[in-house]
Design brief:
7 strands, Rossmann fold, alpha/beta
Length: about 260
């Protein structure tokens, strides 16, 4: 007997930051398993490109344009998604912003900018889309994208590390709050996947240090996040999983020295 654990047919997935390298890879996987996928981004070209990639799986996909740090934009997107499919079942929060500014050179303007993208956007989206899931009364899945820098914090990326540690805390808090409504809240902790927000800090000495601390001795590939994304999105596959921080890091988190 074949178990249909990962079928997302009839579900609507909202992927905020789904136009990013990692976000779009996970959005493609959700579409491939049957979900209607709403790609939310600010850049029209990359957002439409992500929609095209999801559509190539045979899934329905649409672009929605918003600044994820603005509540009014996210409320508008929710209304537009509901007009499109009538429901929200999966929310994935993928926005990310990084910087290697030394601590004593850090301005509060940069601190605010990174915190807004990495943390505020997650809180707002969980408020706006999470409330809708609860009101629907049919459960749901929220998937936040954290980072190996969340625990322990990595050198050179102070604000980014602090923001992702907070994402972990938000994930666990909301897992408790939303559990009575069958809305599960989990986070994926990717290891080192070269992407837009970290390419500028991957200097040769940085890469060497990362490889020394990664037992698999390589970077991750975007498609290697697809399985865990579908697993967490599917109630059949992960219906008793909430408050989890799932590492996909090549063993980075298993190293102590």
């Amino acid at each position: 007997m074949k178990l249909d654990l990962f079928d997302l047919s009839g579900k609507t997935a909202v992927v905020i930051g789904g136009n990013s390298t990692l976000g779009s890879a996970m959005a493609v996987a959700l579409g491939a398993y049957g979900a209607d996928v709403a790609i939310v981004g600010r850049n029209p070209q990359t957002t439409e490109d992500a929609v095209r990639r999801v559509g190539e799986t045979g899934a329905r996909a649409r672009a929605f344009f918003a600044d994820a740090t603005k509540a009014d934009d996210l409320r508008r997107v929710l209304d537009e998604v509901l007009s499109w499919t009538g429901r929200v079942d999966v929310l994935m929060n993928c926005p990310g912003k990084n910087s290697a500014t030394p601590f004593f050179e850090l301005t509060m303007e940069e601190w605010d900018a990174i915190m807004d993208v990495n943390l505020k956007s997650v809180v707002l989206a969980c408020q706006i889309f999470g409330k809708r899931m609860i009101e629907q009364g049919q459960g749901g899945s929220i998937i936040n994208i954290s980072s190996v820098s969340s625990d322990p914090p990595l050198s050179r990326v102070f604000t980014y590390s602090a923001s992702k540690a907070a994402v972990n805390n938000v994930t666990k808090f909301l897992a408790r709050e939303f559990a009575p409504y069958r809305v599960r809240v989990n986070a994926i902790i990717p290891g080192f996947f070269p992407a837009e927000q970290n390419r500028k800090i991957l200097s040769p000495d940085r890469v060497e240090a990362i490889m020394r601390h990664t037992p698999m001795n390589r970077f991750g590939e975007p498609h290697e996040l697809q399985g865990v994304a579908v697993f967490l999105a599917s109630e059949r596959a992960s219906g008793f999983v909430t408050g989890a921080l799932i590492r996909v890091d090549g063993g980075f988190g298993a190293m102590t020295i």
